[in-house]
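call fold(seq) -> tokens
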Amino acid sequence: MPIPPRKRPCRMMPLAAAAAIAVLAGPAPPAEAPPPAAGSGQSAEEINARLVGQLVDFLTAEYSKQLLRPGWMTRASADVGFSRLPTEEATKCLLDHLRKEKHPVAQLVAWQALLGRASILSAEDFRAWHDVTQKMITAGQFQGDLRIGLLEMLSSVPMTQTSRTHFTRLFATTNSLDSRDIPALVAMGHAARAWADAGLVETLLDHLRAPATAYRAELVLRAAGAGGRWARDVGPEAAQAQYRDWWKEARAAFTAAPPPADGWRSLKPQYLPAPTPLGEFDRFAEKWRKELELGDLGLALMGISINIDCSRSMHMELERLKRDVSVMMAALAMVAKEPRIAITLFTTGGVTDTLPLTTNLDALVAHIGKARSAGVGTEEEWAGGLLEALTRSAWGPIEPWNRRVIVLISDEPMLNWQFDLALPVVKKAAASQFRVYCVPLHNGPVIDDPLSVPLDRTGSRVSPPASRGGGGGGGAGKAGKAGGKADRSWDHYTTIANESGGAVIEVRVPNSQLGLGRLVAPARGSELAPLYEGGGPVDRILTRVLTDAINPKYADRIEPLMKILVAYCQGAARSLPEDRATVHPPMKPEQVNPAGKGAKNPPAKVDKGAK
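ret:
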């Protein structure tokens, strides 16, 4: 049963507070501001500094009120606001909130705000931050790329027994066959180099002897500065010898410069930027007038239908979705009172299979597990899949508190005749307050050496958009087959997304069967999991969809919060121990179209209406 509408969200700032900001900011200055009135005793710079100080004090008081509110996202949003203020009072408020906050993601937002202002923390501030961090480590709050910022923070000061213990546990729970762990392993190498600790390096050298630990130990050592050739090129025994020879030569220099006692001052922000110095504070900026107008951030009802192409080239994306749907459900459950996900599988020959909206994670995983990628990938049922997503689920009433989202994932440019059928469905969906997000997948490079590219600390670095001409340029290798370049276009996704107020989220995925945490034939046994640009499809989809669902007008405050949330929810996905002894069979697609050889797509019907 749909839940009743929520009461009208209360505003965080009454009209009087909005007026106060307007007074403190003052009218925008003319192109050439007149000099201060004679006899005022203050220069223009002094007047501006005084008004900036008053504005910052006012914002500090308002953010402090937000920290007392019941919704965790409201409190976390206040931390984003505090992160912009370069004052001791803002630091004090963030530290106090870090100690008191019970919600794990809100606490992580406060933690990231402190990381962004590390350069202005006093020794006492850092000790307080460090003490709470130990408790957060024990609680398992640092997941996904949040581990990178944590390792940088711990390694900014000399190694302690606590940080050594965390490093050891993290190494034991990572997997060099899992793409999610590769950035963390690189960050571990950077931390080992920063600590300049001989015992840590010698422990890693010992790990080179066991196949289950050798490959991630090698990656950590090379990220720490070890030279030579990879073990995959020279063999494990030769690699062990070369790394020990490197250590004999490098040991003295490596251990000569541990981090200084105040090394935290050189830390860089990760998800939240460093605060703006007061001297550069623009009190006329429009954002201060709107800063506290953001309403209640929590969502009542939210449904997402994942429509995924099941043609043969998509079999690895189906395997990834089996794992990552748990991340999606965990993230939705954090922001909505009633989160629901539907899965529509569509392939060639008019074949579709839908599991309606549900909160049952086991049912979702089981439904994805039924998928058998099939067909030659030229006539996917995009239109029929969209219609099923629209009509098979009970989406709830059309109300502002109910968010309706369809995510369309495919590695094939859409056929013109399918687009002609799909567009009326999308228009009908848009009239019922649906947003459609299109996720075209393109082949990305398989990077053999993760150290050959800069460490992506925030999962934000992506390649420029792929070629999107009438044919399949930049696609997954299927374009140019049946249908011809003139009969298909990547641009259809843009039209569909724009029609509904959604967006196109172009994603590059490595063309590799590795990356899910297990060794797959015919791999040689020495490969590393490939890197994912921008953190991977699920990270990018969730960040954009949730930011838009909550309030895209305030994306500058909500988007970093959602990135932290999605990184934390990576802990919900299954994690496998590294096993280099067992070679699993490759995840091969089905070779037969379940609709039957030569089956044609029936015309999609568009007159059923949305439930």
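The longest helix spans residues 44-66.
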